[in-house]
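Q: Focus on the chain.
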Amino acid sequence: IRFKVGGITTSSTGDALLPTQRVSSILRELQDEQLDIIIDEQNITLKAASAKFRLTSEDPREFPPVPTFSEENYFRIPAPVFRQMIRRTSFATDTESSRYALRGLLLEFGEGTVTLAATDSRRLAVATAACEKEGSPVPPAKTTVVPTKAMSLLERSIDPQAEFVDIAVHDNDVMMRSGAGTVYSRLVEGRFPRYRDVIPRSGNVNVPLPVAPFFAA
């Protein structure tokens, strides 16, 4: 994930590699509104109004390259809608199956629509919504299955003020951008079940249910 943070004042540019757990534990304890980060070749100093911390500096060149969203052709989906789609399908994935394709969410694009599907072979969740095109995106010929962790990461990082989620799909990876955050992920290898075969095309019985009482029951 690549995330852009605004409102930063800096006297220079460059890279730094921060020790995740140590910095996270420091941020959880600090009550100050502002934090200064001072970096040299050996140390990283975190300075707040009430405390000062010195950590060992790691070489940022050892960190793998993080792709940026520079696509001109991509699909665009309303952010609140896509967040809800992820929540309504990701629970049905199989996190322990040896059939690896079941550990992800199937992402399909139709003419003006996007569909997410997830299954653990015993239950199936499918959500469909409208989507737009920016440029001339072409869905890959092979099945697009995005890892559940990547989808959950995107769902948690969508800003409440964000309007859209932009998605660019390639043969082996996917880029998903919403507001200041961009999630890159490799696709899951393997075949996804033909889930449409088990969905009835028509039904003879329809039972309307009031949502709130049924949910409570």
Q: What stands out?
A: The longest helix spans residues 79-89. The first strand starts at residue 2 and ends at 3.
